[in-house]
Amino acid sequence: xxxxKYKVQHKLAIGERFRSLCEIENCIDIKDIKxxxxxxxxxxxxxxxxxxxxxxxxxxxxxxxxxKSGFISKEYTKDNNHPTHKxxxxxxxxxxxxxxxNEEYTADLCLDGRNEFLLDHVNGVHIPGLVFIEATRQIAMxxxxxxxxxxxxDVYFVLNxxxxxxxxxxxxxxxxxxxxxxxxxxxxxxxxITISFSQNDKTIVHSKxxxxxxxxxxxxxxxxxxxxxxxxxxxxxxxxQHQEKEVINAER
Length: 252
Known about the structure:
Elements: E1 2-3, E2 10-14, E3 27-29, E4 39-42, H1 50-59, E5 94-101, E6 104-109, H2 130-148, E7 155-166, E8 176-185, E9 190-199, E10 202-215, H3 216-251
Parallel strand pairs: 2-3, 2-4
Antiparallel strand pairs: 1-4, 5-6, 6-8, 7-10, 8-9, 9-10
Protein name: A-factor biosynthesis hotdog domain-containing protein
Organism: Photobacterium frigidiphilum
Pfam families: AfsA
């Protein structure tokens, strides 16, 4: 997060995606920003996109900071395969992931205004609940790939179950995640992750997910065979329906 220090009161910079917040005190539409007029608080996790961040840089005096964007770096994995299994930066919801102890991890939610879950499901004030479902999946995968088995590339991540409980509104401000990941069944190689998301030290979402890890080559073959079977059955269904229509038309 960056803070520009001026004599005027602090204001939260708001982009297009959460524009309804501009009706609230201490929020300002970035389109209304003028040089030295406000002490702006903003971050690449606050629902702003890159163009909006650039607009802030252009129209305000910048106080230098060494903090980078904070996305989980692609340096963590081989062949640029991002640990979240996302390839567009705006869809990556995890930043500043750290291991704090045995099976304990922390992370920040990073919300780009162009994120796929914001494009057609937002009222302009709160963060949609689906964002936290996807963030849970991304945190689970990132922890596994970065900390649990960082040298193992030939694996297939299979999500078995995921759920969340919502305890309050979530807004485009600092969102912290406290995660616990544990191997719960060694025989099936199944893991369970539980996460608490909080804003201003108040828990707003509890989530959990169970997933299993499989040998990639073998599971990919199983997946393709399953797809082939499903498609063959679908074609058979349409074929039978077509034949039934031909019989009905012939009887007329």
